[in-house]
Design a protein that fits this description.
With 300 residues, the protein is of the alpha/beta class. The protein has 3 domains: 47 residues; 170 residues, P-loop containing nucleotide triphosphate hydrolases (Rossmann fold, 3-Layer(aba) Sandwich); 77 residues, Helicase, Ruva Protein, domain 3 (Orthogonal Bundle). Helix content is 47%, strand content 12%. The chain is built from 13 helices and 11 strands. The strands form 4 sheets. Strands 4-7-10-3-11 form a 5-stranded parallel sheet. Strands 1-2 form a two-stranded antiparallel sheet. It has a two-stranded antiparallel sheet with strand order 5-6. Strand 1 and strand 2 form a beta hairpin. Helix 1 runs antiparallel to helix 2 and helix 10 crosses helix 12. The radius of gyration is 23 Å and the shape is globular. About 4% of the residues have low confidence.
């Protein structure tokens, strides 16, 4: 059966469950499954324009999708640049999932979220007793993801000392765990990302230029949401469909609410839009209207 036939069958089962007095136990499960199938059906029919698992059809996104398609099969390092909330990790995962490394691991690390003294251990591993709290040997991401991809998010926040150690790994293809005397040969693809101006940081001496050139063999620039035109509406509807399905609800945007979403500049980009839709649905009692949106979005 195709998706539409599955939907019809599930709806019939829901009706049967209600007739037989099973609505309290079985009907809600069937209804949720029917919504899941309907959601997949809408995606399959192209209601939500998607490529590489990302919603979008604006010219900047079409250009990005084209680059992902060309770069993903290779092993070259990729630097993803873009404002906060533009979806840099989604792009990194797409590069991995459409590469020859897809059967191996994808491991991500946010360089801004890990204390400088622990980042080396997270990436390269450590030996038991290398420092206080190191009660056993631990593989770092580079060894654990051997044959796969390591994604270094917010690479611009990596300390200079750690940048030098990362550069040696990229040059030699070997990692040495903290407290170890031996190195491990590794084969990983590096994808890095930053919302900072790395070339300017190089000029200011805040980022190693040699490391930058190692990472930026190919650079992908993610467009801010304000430059994506109709993608705002597609994304808003996509998020609303997802959150409404999770809550067992049906909801839509009024024309006035959608106009407000499209007019807002979204400084927090896609992540801010996702949070706004989730908030609006939680506050609404039916369709989402202007009164359900944040004051900053409606300009009040």
């Amino acid at each position: 059966m195709n998706l539409s036939q599955w939907t019809e069958r599930l709806e019939a089962l829901v009706a049967q469950a209600r007739e037989e007095g099973l609505a309290a136990e079985l009907a809600p499960v069937l209804m949720r499954l029917a919504r899941d199938v309907q959601h997949a059906d809408r995606e399959g029919k192209g209601e939500f324009p998607m490529s590489f698992g990302m919603v979008g059809e604006s010219p900047p996104m079409q250009e990005l999708f084209d680059l992902i398609g060309r770069v993903a099969p290779s092993d070259v390092p990729v630097l993803i640049q873009g404002e906060t909330g533009t979806g840099k990790e989604l792009v990194a995962k797409a590069l991995h999932q459409h590469s020859n490394r897809r059967e191996n691991r994808f491991l991500a690390e946010n360089c801004a979220a890990v204390p400088a003294n622990l980042l080396e251990s997270e990436l390269f591993g450590h030996k038991r007793g290398a420092f206080t709290g190191a009660v056993q040997d631990r593989q770092g991401h580079f060894v654990a993801a051997d044959g796969g991809t390591v994604f270094l998010d917010e690479i611009g926040d990596m300390p200079l000392e750690m940048q030098a150690k990362l550069l040696r790994v990229l040059q030699d293809g070997e990692v040495r765990p903290v407290g170890a005397n031996k190195t491990h040969r590794v084969d990983v693809r590096i994808v890095a990302a930053s919302n900072k101006d790395l070339p300017e940081m190089c000029r200011q001496g805040e980022f190693r230029e040699d490391l930058y050139f190692r990472l930026a063999v190919v650079t992908l620039q993610l467009p801010p949401l304000r430059d994506r035109g109709a993608d705002i509406e597609h994304l808003a509807r996509f998020f609303l469909e997802r959150f409404a399905r999770e809550q067992g609800r049906d909801a839509a945007f009024t024309p006035e609410a959608m106009a407000a979403l499209r007019a807002y500049p979204w400084p927090g980009n896609v992540r801010e839009l996702e949070n706004e839709v989730q908030r609006a649905l939680a506050l609404s009692t039916g369709d989402i209207d202007l009164s359900d949106l944040s004051p900053r979005v409606v300009g009040t």
